[in-house]
């Protein structure tokens, strides 16, 4: 049987490939779906929050946001006169793309868990949550 590392890596790669294939039909590039998902969740966020949510570097977020702004998916603006922090929110075009992505995520999730019982799906999510929590707490402790 394959290692947990291999199975997680392969599952992520296959899931991402399917999502990005569908997202490209909406004119989106890699990196954009997770940022749209983040902004749909938060409504508005600064670059640091987006980077943390998406598990990518702030500099990478900045370059992705520039392309998204040029495509009319997001707007960036100062909040409360703070010139050091730009807050990002979805435009109507971005909201539409994010809603379509939600359908893509749900369809991909349904396809990838077809044949799983509701209990198996809940168990899988629970175990992955626990694994993420453990890894995050180890990272915070410097382990």
The average pLDDT score comes to 92
Could you please say which CATH topology of one domain applies here? Arc Repressor Mutant, subunit A
**Radius of gyration, in angstroms, nearest whole number:** 17 Å
Q: Which percent range describes the beta-strand content?
A: 5-15%
The percent of residues in helical segments reads: 55-70%
Shape: globular
Q: Order of strands in the sheet with the most strands?
A: 1-3-2
Count of helical regions: 6
Query: What is the straight-line distance between the termini?
Result: 28 Å
Secondary-structure-based class equals alpha+beta
Major sheet summary line: 3 strands, antiparallel
CATH superfamily membership of one domain, which one?
Answer: Winged helix-like DNA-binding domain superfamily/Winged helix DNA-binding domain
Record field, number of beta strands: 3
Description:
The structure is a single chain. The protein is of the alpha+beta class and 143 residues long. The protein has a domain at 22-101: Arc Repressor Mutant, subunit A. It contains six helices and three strands, in the order ααβααββαα. The chain has helices at residues 4-24, 32-42, 47-54, 58-70, 92-112, 118-140, and strands spanning 44-46, 74-79, 82-90. Strands 1-3-2 form a three-stranded antiparallel beta sheet. β2 and β3 form a beta hairpin. The longest helix has 23 residues, at 118-140. The protein is globular and about 55 Å long. The two termini are 28 Å apart.
